[in-house]
Amino acid sequence: MPDYPVRILKRLGGKVHTKMLGRSNVVEDRELITGQDPYSAKELGEKLMKKIEVRQNF
Question: CA 23, 33, 42, 56: dihedral to nearest 10 degrees?
């Protein structure tokens, strides 16, 4: 890879939020939900399920 994804995102104006490895780190921005690593899987899944439930109620 010519560059690290974090550097590319920052250079293009993205905001990158990182925490210490081994801790959940989930960021939600409008329709995008993203997690830092496998430790974030449970929290990410919970947020995704809430968003799906809200959408189904429309």
Answer: 160
